[in-house]
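[stage:ingest] chain + small molecule (tryptophan)
[stage:ingest] validated
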Amino acid sequence: MARILTGIQSTGTPHLGNILGAIMPGIELSKQKDNEAFFFIADLHSLTQIKDGNQLRKNTYATAATWLAFGFDTSTNVFYRQSDVAAEVCQLAWFLNCYTPFPMLSNAHSFKDKSQKLSDVNAGLFTYPVLMAADIIGYDADYVPVGKDQQQHLEMTKDIASSFNHIHGETFVLPEGLYDKRVMIVPGTDGQKMSKSYNNFIDIFLSDKDLRKQIMKIETDSTPIEEPKNCESCNAFALYALLADEVQIAKMKTNYATPGYGYGHAKQALFELICEKFKTERARFNELMENTDELDRQLAIGAEKAKAVISGVVAKVKSKTGY
Ligand code: ADP
Ligand code: TRP
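[stage:predict] done
[stage:export] tokens:
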């Protein structure tokens, strides 16, 4: 039995990049025979950026509702909020801090990137990878499905775990990152990586009207409508191609090559494809957001199961380190 583990921060409602890059591939893995999934909402990590409790809570519910709307089965897997195991995971993070070389953290791309973009550069942002390592190592995870942007964090986790194992003997399972080669990085409306922090995301859970508006904002070049267009360099096409089947993609390529077919048409087709493809998930998401008691109930069950596992790992660490 392989244990698959991943977390998603609650810094907003999960966007199309999170869904295609993390949530859908994660759920697929959880359904494979002999896999057991630990999926959680990394709401303690979110505190590095969000200081408004109401907002944080709302984001946490939206993140939980997304996993459930996309069909994550909480009866056979473990689904929890990181903050519900705060005592254990933060304790473990402290131990791991003491096995983490300072230069490794200062060289983290994600920290460098965030510290240039954000006005609040706090120590939590700096030690973020150590808490992430505790999230993974604390549950003896074998595989961690994440986007390619998290690869360095995964390498750091392995380094920290190996360093502890080297000093104290085999204690931690060394996790492997799983990067979905097909999806890789989903582009945002401006062609950069889709991200909450770049405000270039598509939120599929918006109302039809607002979703359409967001899609219409996708940046395209100024080729006039009467000229053929290059689909290869178009953001709207790139997003379409990630969601459409082969027949639809071939048809869209022909459309781009046909004079009179404009970017507006392509964006409308993308909007319709998203509505059609995610019809059930969008409806289920709204139902769950109206019933947060149900979300709390499911998360509480997961927290119990998660706590039982991480407590065992913390006890082992304490014993090995002489406490
Ligand atoms: P954001 O960049 O919007 O803050 P997160 O860093 O919270 O997103 O990412 C949550 C998960 O979604 C991670 O596993 C990450 O790799 C994945 N992810 C985020 N953005 C993308 C994207 N544009 N394409 C593919 N996967 C993504
Ligand atoms: N850092 C991850 C991200 O931003 C979120 C995360 C926190 C995570 N802890 C984790 C992902 C543990 C995988 C495993 O996407």
